[in-house]
Amino acid sequence: MRRSWVCAVLCAGMLLAVSCRQDVIVWPSESEKAGEAVSGPIAGFYLLNEGNMGSNKCTLDFYDYASATYTRNVYGNANPDVVKELGDVGNDLQVYGSRLWAVINCSNKVEVMDAGTARRLGQIEIPNCRYLAFDGPYAYVTSYAGPVQIDDNYKQRGYVARIDTATLQVVDTCLVGYQPDGIAILDGYAYIANSGGYMVNNYERTVSVVDLATMSEVRRIPVAVNLHLAVADRFGQLWVSSRGDYYDAPASLYWIDRPGSLAAVNELRSPAGNHVAASAMALCGDSLYIVGSEFSYVTYETVMTFGIVNVRTHELVCQNFITDGTDSKIRKPYSVAVNPDNGQIMVADARDYVNPGRLYCFSPDGVRLWDVRTGDIPAHFAFVRRR
Amino acid sequence: MRVLCLLMYVIALPFPAFAQERDSVAMSSDMGEITVYGRQRDEIVPSQRLGGERLEALRTHSVADALRYFSGVQIKDYGGVGGLKTVDVRSMGTNHMGVFYDGIQLGNAQNGLVDLGRFSMENIEEIALYNGQKAQIFQPARDFGTSGSVYIRTRRPQFEEGKNFNIRAVLRGGSFGMISPVIVWEQKWSRRVSSTVSADYTGADGKYSFRYRRVLPSGTVAWDTTAVRQNGDLRSFRIEGAVFGNTDDGTWNVKVYYYDSNRGIPGAVVNNVWRFAQRQWDRNLFVQGSWIKHVSRRYKFQLSGKYANDWMRYLNPDATTMLMDNRFRQNEAYFSMANNIELLPRWELNVSADYQFNSLNANLANFAYPRRHTLLLAFATQYQLGRFRAMASVLGTNVWDKTMVAQVNGRDALSRWTPAVYVSYNPIKDNTDLSLRFFYKKIFRLPTFNDLYYTEVGSINLKPENTQQLDVGLIYQHDWRRGVFRHLEFKADGYYNKVDNKIIAVPKGSGQYRWMMMNVGKVRILGVETTAQTVMRWRRDWSLVLCANYTYQSAQDRTDASDNDPYYGTYGGQIAYIPWHSGSATGNLRWRQLGLNYAFVYVGERYHSSSNIRENYEQPWYTHDLSVSYTLYGKRGVRAMKWFRSMMFTLECNNVFDQQYDVVPNYPMPGRNWKGVIRVEL
What we know:
Largest sheet of chain A: 5 strands, antiparallel
Strand content of chain A: over 45%
Oligomer: heterodimer
Number of helices of chain B: 5
Number of helices of chain A: 2
Structural class of chain A: mainly beta
Radius of gyration of chain A: 23 Å
């Protein structure tokens, strides 16, 4: 019968087309060759991929210099039994001693791992945690989630948590400004870049100075709106970046001379007198490498920066450290790191935030050596020394 | 004669085509159901419809759930009773869908999304899906303005001989702590005027357990966790009233609708986060009416109007993330006039003009307070030549945006004409069983207020997002008066859609998560849809309705030609959340007063981003739903059974095999769940 024939064909077609659910396998890691093997005191580096908010796709990658292999998702491989993997939105990564510390912003935790194996050692619960710095036996983590002030305008203080690196417990906290981000430590003081990022039109403008002896905020240094990163150099200077307010105030970069006492704030300008936008900074010797991109409502174009600042002379000595034209392939420069041993420069491209990013490795003179696919939003680097 | 036909369509179709006898058995209602599958002769290209028995079997679901049974429809479901569900037809994007409630479009100028959970299935008589537009010409200009449309038609009152009221009371309850009473009162005031009032309340704690499980490549369990979904509670109240009238030369109706809800927003379940606190309140009010008058044999018009006021509050009281307490208020005013002229006996012309005003206020910093004026003008014509029928329309859209603040300008005025052509042909002489069809439509969606003006994210330079659709299809259907098979229908369509200037959030600014909206996306969609449906009846009191559909879609991202790696590149990759294969099957078996319903939905493998790599892979999911119902009819002679007309008991089990799945990653869907319904009609 014609109709049953039609039915049969349709049913068979559907059955052929469909496939069934299977058990979901823990994300295995994947390795690929990238570049040439390099020997030296640096064994490799970790790269923390932030992952888009709500995606739970924060992943950890590792590059091994000896074998010149790039391995994606080493955390999943080392810790297959952790429920819901590394977490949601990685925000900072550092190696301290033999341990690797990762700040996972939307999972409200700091993950502590073995720096050699990425095996999980423990976690510290800190809501809305942002950035990390170390001093002696303590780790210091900034958090947005301080007390809320009952006010017409939204105001929520942030704080710095002091973590005992031996016990992985929060032992003390200190209130700072609104939505504190970057943190740097110089001579017994922690300097925290307050953003006020939740208070559009009322952004913070200050760096909080916290005396680590008493764990109290002693001073505020006014700098510029919506501060982001803080880096301390060997001359006792503090480099602070501002994101601007996305309208009138552009993103810009400042250095603070002797922040403990004199605190003279100076803006770094390009030789042509322009503001310098820094999405990420990496200090290597006296060179501060910066990458940034800024969208202009005037030209409707994004201007990218790949610059080097001499921290001694306070000059933007190079406006594009990429010399072979690879910068035209980079869509969204999101992070930078420099291998302190061989001077190779890593630039992470976050591309469109929702698809895999890309990591570019350049020779010290700015020629592309290799590039590789990363996880989503590659953002934070940490080098591991050979043991 | 033609006018009469159309008149019949406009007036008669809204009424169920059957009248139920008080003392009859189930058969009498069965007899009428076939009309639901019957031909809508005034539509050049038929729609997909859900009504009658199949809709009856889905009464306990939401409108969005019911839409899963249409081919070409993808639902993005965040899970739970009050969870967000968005509808995407033929992969063109959620914002391209128009949802029409009793003939007038439901708007949301803020984000273009219409919450389909706001409507009670109890009050709905039919849901129809049209690709392109409703292929008839006598309609408001706005009906020509979407890439796809869903028409929801509410139940119109109808009364038995000698009866001037109907009351229907329904109580639903089940899993998720859900309880929902509904009451519908229909009254006949005179031969020409009747009214209906319906009210319902839904309360649910929204809790359900879900399970995530991962295994090692060796097959041993890596981790396995079960938790309870939190913060998915819902309290909602809806009341709706309508008055319907007939005159000698037309019809009119007026409708008032109010909805009030308070719900938790269950967030993404990620590492170390299992609890959520976000809440949303909605208050929606609208008043709408329309009047159709046949002025002469050759001229008729339709006037329609609407006023809508929507209030929404979003609260994030969680001090570990940004505290937020945002309120939004939207206003919409709408007026339309459609004029239909019969130029020659088989040639009709329609001219429609619509005006619409939208505004949005919010308590956000730097908010632009946008106002939008839209003027639409549509010309449409329909002509029949032998076995050919053709319809062509052209829609003119003029939009002016203004803002209430000096710093932000409104988007530049827009003026644009867009065409659509529909053709159908019956290849067999004197037989309408087989019909071939074709349509082409070019249309666009305007950027929403959020796209344009949302503080920091919006961009006023956005262009409209364009779609072009090309469709070729055939339909075969046949009805028999005798035998087991009473109706058989087979539909197949192939289509090619282009989406250009797709509005996508792209990274912006220095560092951090900064997004802005840009017209960068391009999508090319090639698809095939097939539907088969049959109605069987045997031994006088058995009936079976079977329906199956299957959809194949290749929806390729053509945005960035440089991102073309064959494995991980986004260029040519299947776009997010669109499965290559999807389908559904339903069966409704009835024997006397007993009904058994089965529904199967399948969504094949897909990726959650255009980079089709292993990390972005999403497993297929499929659910089986079963329900049993028993209807008791009142009897005049029996004392205990004479006070009601009918009483129906339904027990439903959804996701029978307890599949644990996500439609959107990290938003777990409910496993097996139960529902019971008692429906009494007086």
